[in-house]
Design brief:
By secondary structure, the chain is an alpha/beta fold. It is 48% helix and 15% strand. It has two domains: 314 residues, Rossmann fold (3-Layer(aba) Sandwich); 144 residues, Orthogonal Bundle (Isoleucyl-tRNA Synthetase, Domain 1), CATH 1.10.730.10. The chain has 18 helices and 17 strands. The strands form five sheets. Strands 3-2-1-13-14-9 form a six-stranded parallel sheet, with helices on both faces. It has a four-stranded antiparallel sheet with strand order 5-4-8-10.
């Protein structure tokens, strides 16, 4: 029976086009979704956009358009970008959709009826940029200490959620389930926040009209608009439409994995679980908080003025090269410093030199020395060094992928590529081909088949990261069928590629990039 796997990205705030930080979360989720599909699991992959709030309302006013017109325009930029980067999502949720409004209002009505939401007055600091209420300790000189963005002192009537009621229960859950929040540094951060004491939080605003109206209720005022975090976070459930497709919700929701940036860990690991506890719903299976991509040690973002357009990068360097770089170069749980020079170096070293060149060499030698690439099928089953390398790399890869340690998974796959390159240099097939000794001819066939089989395995492992390029590599090797099985990753093993193959040659999979120091964008 297939296992269910549900993975989500953050829903991105649509004030402008996506940048490389948005791509980081999305490619990571896409890679894990592809991996799970290749294991034969039943996967649902959700991404989408957060379209309500004061920031969007103000920007629409500045541009003299409606908020809906503004978000409709920007959303298409996200969809176009994800299409460019071959993001295979199953659903794209927009918080302006009726299915989302319906779910948010239903759940809020339940909380009001239960008594977990009450009306009071809020007075304090509010960050429009972060869409967050802040305490006195989070503000200095009129700015958020964490983000550096200006804050406003506001006073207005608001509906509050009794988050404090569920704080201790959440703390106990996190301590009993160490894998609920990863990496450990973020888990400790959340526990530290909970131990400081949790206040009830605002769920509504009266000064914003662009959003979801409070549900019709004797206890709810129509002048209130649902505040961004209860609105935004509910997308992970509203996309599953539990009222219309309960079987889908029951199948996927308990297997939910939220991929997020570390800056929104509190909302996902404190607000969201307490909302769910109050509603009597299961918590997500895991919250995975990655680090920031930084430039000059500053988070890459539109507001910082250092945003990097991934679509422009892809035009110059290729989609797969960018996908590979952002998950190979950075430890997924930590911050990583981005420079154009580092990116060129990584792509040239790992993709052009090691992987692409190795594929070309092996395919060319098989075609040249083994008769149009027709492989030998009577090789005995003796163990070899490359077989041992693959036997170690495959489980290491699986272990890393399950833990969202993408850089480690790539390292495991690339140990195979490195071993093949070393085997070629050590065995010198070109010399064996010139020999008249039958033993050398047999050795030549064994070496080339083992190199071929190793690269076939490495290419399957690489497929979630570089889907288009790995297919080209397997086409060169005559082994495209390795991806045909619905459990291609699960069934992957040494020796299953032993058959007659016809290799082919073509343009380099990853042409070497020429670094231009003036090209720093």
């Amino acid at each position: 029976m297939k296992e269910a796997f549900y993975i989500t990205t953050p829903i991105y705030y649509v004030t402008d086009a996506p940048h490389i930080g948005h791509l980081y979360s999305t490619v990571a989720a896409d890679v894990r979704a592809r991996y799970e599909r290749m294991l034969g699991n039943d996967v649902w992959f959700l991404t989408g956009t957060d379209e309500h709030g004061q920031k969007i309302q103000r920007k629409a006013q500045e541009r003299k358009v409606t908020p809906q017109a503004l978000v409709d325009e920007v959303v298409e930029r996200y969809k176009d970008a994800w299409k460019d980067f071959e993001i295979q999502y199953d659903d794209f949720i927009r918080t302006s959709e009726e299915r989302h409004h319906r779910t948010v209002r239903k759940y809020l009505a339940e909380l009001i009826e239960k008594g977990d939401v009450y009306l009071a007055e809020y007075e304090g600091w509010y960050s429009v940029s972060d869409e967050a209420y802040l305490t006195e300790t989070q503000v200095k000189d009129g700015k958020s200490i964490e983000s550096g963005k200006p804050v406003e002192l506001i006073r207005e009537e608001s509906y509050f959620f009794k988050m404090s009621t569920y704080a201790e229960r959440l703390r106990e859950y996190i301590e009993k389930n160490p894998e609920f929040i990863v990496p450990e540094t973020r888990r400790n951060e959340v526990l530290g926040f909970l131990k400081q004491g949790v206040r009830d939080i605002s769920l509504s605003r009266t000064t914003i009209t662009w959003g979801i109206p409070m549900p019709e209720s004797k206890q709810a005022s129509k002048k209130h608009t649902v505040y961004v975090w209860f609105d935004a976070l509910t997308n992970y459930i509203s996309a599953l439409e539990p009222d219309k497709t309960p079987e889908k919700f029951e199948k996927f929701w308990p297997e939910a994995h939220h991929v997020i940036g570390k800056d929104i860990i509190r909302f996902h690991a404190v607000y969201w679980p307490t909302f769910l506890m109050a509603l009597g719903l299961p918590l997500p299976k895991q919250i995975i908080a990655h680090g920031w991509i930084t430039m000059a040690n500053q988070k890459i973002s539109k507001s910082s003025g250092n945003a990097v357009d991934p679509r422009e990068l892809a035009k110059k360097l290729g989609v797969d090269a960018i996908r590979f770089f952002i998950l190979r170069e950075f430890n997924f749980g930590q911050d990583g410093e981005y420079t154009r020079e580092t990116m060129y170096q990584r792509i040239n070293a790992d993709l052009a030199n090691d992987y692409g060149n190795c594929i070309s060499r092996v395919a060319s030698m098989i075609a040249k020395y083994m008769g149009d690439g027709e492989n030998v099928v009577d090789i005995d089953g003796k163990a070899s060094n490359l077989a041992e390398v693959c036997a170690t790399a495959i489980p290491a890869y699986h272990q890393a992928m399950k833990k969202f340690l993408f850089h480690k998974a790539i390292e495991a796959a690339w140990t195979i590529v490195g071993a093949v390159n070393k085997c070629i240099e050590d065995s010198a097939p070109w010399a064996l081909a010139k020999s008249q000794d039958p033993a050398d001819k047999s050795k030549l066939h064994r070496v080339l088949w083992e190199c071929h089989e190793s690269l076939r395995i490495a290419s399957v492992l690489a497929h979630p990261f570089i889907p288009g390029s790995s297919v080209k590599a397997l086409d060169f090797l005559g082994s495209r069928q390795s991806l045909d099985s619905q459990s291609a990753m699960k069934d992957l093993k040494w020796g299953s590629g032993l058959k007659k193959v016809t290799v082919s040659k073509g343009a380099p999979i990853f042409p070497r990039l020429e670094w231009d120091k003036e090209d720093v964008g």
